[in-house]
Amino acid sequence: MQEANLGNLLTDLMRTRLRTDIALINAGQIRRSLEPGPVTLGDVLSVLPFDSALVTLKVTGEKLRQALEHSVSQWPNHSGRFFQISGLQVTYNAMAPIGSRVKSMLVGDVPLDVSITYTVATDAFVADGGDGYDMLTHATHRIDHQTPLRDLLLKALADGPLYADTGHRMVFENSFPSR
Length: 179
Known about the structure:
179 residues; alpha+beta; 5'-nucleotidase,  domain 2; 4-stranded mixed β-sheet
């Protein structure tokens, strides 16, 4: 589980297109990487095969913290529930007990405030509590956009070449020892 350049690209597309503070997608939605060079429709379909439509929500900082804790609750095992993120910087402590692994969170450059409500882009699967994200089913102001993530990627590819890098959105302290 780690930050991925394709995850950054996809969440940035979501956050920009849907004009939210934050974007979150579960890693299980991304089925493989994209290779540099020309990208075909078949490539995009193999990377993002699911039809789960994008949604926007209003989520309290407390529920957002809970969701990010849930994202890393399976460490050190790989899990499709692990979030790729945009609009956030999160520091995790891998050795902390489950439920207290999020050490700090910044929204933009400002520390997360558990009492503030943030706009969040995600997909219907996660918003409906998929992968155990039940805390997001309590979000308000849900808007279903009827567009799967792959449509955003296809539009961005049609607009010109894309480049994505890891942006140090996630910092991992005290990683698990090698097995």
